[in-house]
Design goal:
Elements (H helix, E strand, L loop, with lengths): L1 E6 L2 E4 L4 E9 L6 E7 L6 E7 L4 E3 L7 E6 L4 E6 L8 E9 L2 E4 L3 E6 L1
Parallel strand pairs: 2-11
Antiparallel strand pairs: 1-3, 3-8, 4-5, 4-9, 5-6, 7-8, 9-10, 9-11
């Protein structure tokens, strides 16, 4: 069984920063892709950023230059450093890991950016 636990969400003013963490545990295949997704109220879930087990990253245009994804393979933990936050970044942020064609999801952490 694979478990993903997110942390680091909260309330921040526009222009501020937050760092999200996602701790993965269980039987995880060494070749995988981890990612952050978000869903704002009334909107569909969207990709924020992904990072492969080899370290290759992909970041959505809407957050490029402001958000940085990284991972510590030894700790099985992924991070999302979010800077220059905007009210439109308000959403529930979920952690995902994909391997062997199966997706696993965390329960999410709420990020609220006030104007």
């Amino acid at each position: 069984q694979v478990q993903l636990v997110e942390s680091g969400g909260g309330l921040v003013q526009a222009g501020g920063s937050l760092r999200l963490s996602c701790a993965a545990s269980g039987r995880i295949f060494s070749t995988n892709v981890m990612g952050w997704y978000r869903q704002a109220p009334g909107k569909q879930r969207e990709l924020v950023a992904t990072i492969t087990s080899g370290g290759s990253t992909n970041v959505a245009d809407s957050v490029k230059g402001r958000f940085t994804i990284s991972r510590d393979k030894a700790k099985n933990t992924m991070y999302l450093q979010m800077n220059s936050l905007k009210p439109e970044d308000t959403a529930d942020y979920s952690c995902n890991i994909r391997f062997l064609a199966v997706n696993y999801w965390g329960k999410g952490t709420l990020v609220t950016v006030s104007s």
